Amino acid sequence: MSRARSAAPAPILDVLTEALVERPQASLGELAALAGVGRTTLHRLYPTREAVLRAVALDALARLREVDEEVELAAAFAPDTSPDDSWQTLERWIERLVPLGPRLRFLLRASELDGDAELTRASAALDATLLSALERAQAQGLLSPRPPAAWLMASLHALIYVCWEQVAAGTVAPRDAAGLVFRTWLGGVGSQGKR
Questions:
Q1: Angle of the 83-97 helix axis to the 149-169 helix axis, nearest 10
Q2: CB 152 within 8 A of CB 189
Q3: Cβ-based neighbour number of residue 173 at 10 Å
Q4: CA distance 127 to 150
Q5: What are the two backbone dihedrals, phi and then psi, of residue 28, each rounded to the nearest 5 degrees?
Q6: What are phi and psi of 77, to 5 degrees?
Q7: Kind plus residue range of the DSSP H or E element containing 5
Q8: Residue 56: C-alpha distances to residues 71, 147, 157 (Å)
Q9: What gap in Å lies between CA 158 and CA 74, rounded to an integer?
Q10: Mean pLDDT of successive 10-residue segments in the chain (195 residues)?
Q11: Which residues contact 146 (CB under 8 A, 6 or more apart)?
């Protein structure tokens, strides 16, 4: 008798994230079907569609925060951190974010949650960490002082998002993704750039 087992099912929030990326307007019943669980099971976990959206958003923000903490993004470009170490930290951060593309896509498209104060605070805290690092890099002359740090941050987020789309489409190899984002972004905003 074979003892082969099937792989464990993906955690429900991972599956729901993928489902919402593919079908952003899906009803609770459709989400249950897409997630491969019964409607009653999903309803027990998340009684409304808004509760599903909020849970997926909170999970996405938590995972993004874990990346920030894991790579120690807050220490990037600090006075006691070498520029080389800081650049490596930023590249590791990008590398860890690219696989989170579906979550980034969901967060960018979930306009129904725009007024949620908790989500807004959590997102702002994440942005503040990166923004501070970029402002320190500008102050040290490692990034161009011309564009506002908020623009540098937004352009970096956009490149990560586009890179994830290209990985998903098969036009960029996952192993090349972070380096491509890093070189493209830095080539456009580095203080040694041609423009």
A1: 50
A2: yes
A3: 10
A4: 9
A5: -60, -40
A6: 65, 20
A7: none
A8: 23, 33, 19
A9: 21
A10: 38 90 91 90 91 92 95 94 94 91 84 90 94 95 93 93 90 92 83 48
A11: none
Q: Which two tokens stand for residue 85?
A: 């170490």
Smallest CA-to-CA distance from 129 within 42, 35, 45, 64 is with 64
Token pair, residue 69, equals: 């903490």
* Of residues 22, 21, 20, 23, the one with CA closest to residue 51: 20
How many other β-carbons are positioned within 10 Å of the β-carbon of residue 30?
14
Neighbours of 52 (CB within 10 A): 24
Structure tokens at 19: 């489902």
Task: Kindly provide the b/e burial profile for residues 78-91, where b requires at least 16 CB atoms within 10 angstroms of the residue's own CB.
Answer: beeeeeeebbebbb
Among all chains, which residue has been given the structure tokens 């019964």? 38
